[in-house]
Amino acid sequence: MAAQGPFVSTITGSFSHPAGDNPTVAMVEAAYRHHELDARYLNCDVRDVDLAAAVRGAVAMGWAGFNCSIPHKLAVIEHLDELAESAGLIGAVNCVVLRGGRLVGENTDGQGFVASLAGVVDLTGARVVVLGSGGAARAVAVESALAGALSVDVVSRSAGPGRSLVEVLRARTGATSEHAGWDGDLSLDVLGHDVDVLVNATPIGLGDAEARVPLDLASVPPSCVVADVIPNPPRTRLLRDASARGCRTVDGLGMLVAQAAHAIRLWTGLEPDQAVMRAALERALGQIA
Ligand code: NDP
């Protein structure tokens, strides 16, 4: 944590553009208040041309760290001193930590996903299938592999990003990995093996509770845990349909809370109360939905 005197607050925050609808501030500040930590989380609207100056400003003011969201997750990397292993493999940074004067890039999205599965399924030896190959999919796939999954297969419409993710998983993690194309309703039978965890890491369902992931649900065994990265609305059609089939489900709200909790841990050393954070997030999402 940054050096403190009695009148010096710990400063954290977020750099993104646009920044107006970022609900993270509500849950992080709720945790700081709950734990009586003299810390702030400032939601900063930073345009891409101002990113370098914003990073220098955070260093100059002794911030403990900051989140990066659209459009800075890739661009921030050139301003950092080092990358954590998973951030390097994912190729994107959503959390920067100021440690001993050095800027360290982390990616907490996938770590949040893995944490959100706790108590539901153990990834050790699990066969995971990730739908999509964008930023969230890369984070989920890499962290699932690093957490000990036996296989992490990637299903995506665009072959290029999907295959390059598969190459990273094969070369840099202990998991096996295959790519499958996605044209029309996906049958998990094309993978040729059982699936323990299926993750929607596409934006299908964001802001639309009826949006349907093109998937043949009959191919999803009831023993499969179905997870969705979509935080709002959290009970997506995919999760409702999977529950109706008897599958256990994990929503994207838990992932969002867990990745913010991990950021708080990295910045302050505090183990925050995630129930407090989730309640604050649900209130904030209710306000902006
Ligand atoms: P990207 O734009 O980087 O990637 C989106 C991916 O979804 C691409 O692979 C894209 O495929 C695929 N996709 C989009 N629409 C469809 C479709 N109709 N059918 C099949 N594939 C589709 O987005 P992100 O990965 O950054 O974000 C994805 C979602 O994850 C967002 O909704 C975001 O809210 C959520 N998220 C949640 C987090 C949480 O903590 N809960 C954290 C981070 C993200 P193609 O290349 O073929 O277009």
Give short descriptive properties of this protein.
alpha/beta; Rossmann fold; 2 domains; 6-stranded parallel β-sheet; 9 helices; globular
Question: In brief, what are we looking at here?
Answer:
The protein is an alpha/beta fold. The chain has helices spanning 24-34, 51-60, 85-90, 108-116, 135-146, 159-172, 237-244, 252-268, 274-288, and strands at residues 10-16, 39-45, 65-68, 82-83, 95-99, 102-106, 127-131, 151-156, 179-181, 197-200, 225-228, 249-250. The chain folds into two domains: 10-106 and 254-284, Rossmann fold; 111-250, 3-Layer(aba) Sandwich (Rossmann fold).
**Please, how many domains?**
2
Q: Which shape, going by the Cα principal axes? A: globular
Estimated radius of gyration: 19 Å
**Largest sheet, if any?**
6 strands, mixed
Give the CATH H-level superfamily of the largest domain.
NAD(P)-binding Rossmann-like Domain
Tell me the span between the first and last alpha carbons: 34 Å
Structure description:
The protein is an alpha/beta fold and 289 residues long. The chain folds into 2 domains: 10-106 and 254-284, Leucine Dehydrogenase, chain A, domain 1 (Rossmann fold); 111-250, NAD(P)-binding Rossmann-like Domain (Rossmann fold). It is built from 9 helices and 12 strands. It has a 6-stranded mixed beta sheet, sandwiched between helices. Strands 9-8-7-10-11-12 form a 6-stranded parallel beta sheet. α1 links the parallel β1 (10-16) and β2. It is globular. The chain starts with 9 loop residues before the first strand and ends with a helix. The mean pLDDT is 95. The structure holds NADPH dihydro-nicotinamide-adenine-dinucleotide phosphate (NDP). The site of NADPH dihydro-nicotinamide-adenine-dinucleotide phosphate has 24 residues, from α4, α5 and α8. Residues 109, 112, 132-137, 156-158, 161, 182, 202-204, 206, 229-231, 252, 255-256, 259 line the site of NADPH dihydro-nicotinamide-adenine-dinucleotide phosphate (NDP).
